[in-house]
Backbone:
């Protein structure tokens, strides 16, 4: 089992966020916009439209990326 992403650590693997319903409130859409993740509102929750490569292997984890992964 991998460890949670922490700010400033180097990613050992590519991290891809799959499409699908997040279960998060529509007020969270700006959070996804900051990370350039395409979303839509579906049945009152945020849905990710397409897969997104959030972090590439060897890149440092940013605060927004770590926060998103902590929500999952």
Residues:
């Amino acid at each position: 089992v991998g460890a949670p992403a922490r700010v400033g650590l180097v990613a050992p693997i590519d991290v891809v966020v799959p499409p699908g319903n997040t279960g998060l409130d529509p007020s969270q859409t700006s959070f996804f916009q900051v990370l350039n993740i395409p979303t839509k509102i579906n049945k009152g929750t945020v849905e990710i439209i397409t897969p997104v490569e959030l972090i590439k292997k060897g890149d440092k984890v940013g605060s927004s990326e770590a926060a998103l992964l902590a929500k999952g």
